[in-house]
Amino acid sequence: MGPKRVCDAFLPMLDKKEGRIVNVSSGAASAYMKGSMGKMKMGKCTKEEKAPLLSFDVTWEQILGCVEAEKKAGSGTIEPFTAYGLSKAGLTAYTMYLAKLYPAIVSSSCSPGFIATAMTKGYGAKLTPEQGTVSLRHCLFGKLGGNGWYFGSDAKRSPLDKAREPGDPEYKP
Length: 173
Fold this sequence. Notes:
3-stranded parallel β-sheet; globular; 38% helix; Rossmann fold; alpha/beta; two-stranded antiparallel sheet
């Protein structure tokens, strides 16, 4: 809900011809959509229940509906890592929703990658904080080629429903 509140507050102040919205998502969004990260299962919803999060026609009500469906499937609770992945998939869906509502403002979401910080120590994170800004800088200042797109840590367009590793070809639907 935080990014929505920030967008709601700042949208009236954005330049209607050159404004940009950049939401910081995560590779956990793709992991949630495919239902696992490595050997760890993520979420209890079916692909059909998650499907609205992949559509450029998604509505805010559908995004909230996915959260409610996950809660219901989990007997009223959502496991922490699932909640994180769902929140990032929902954020990327919200980015597509913003692109539809405000087509003249470029909206994008990106993953910084798995950054080596004190918080990720011991979990295999390899990217430096500087490397973690590549996708963010691209979304802020680069030529994106489309509105509502999701970019991986290497600043290449990525799918939300499967992993695209840095160095893999850019996603072309």
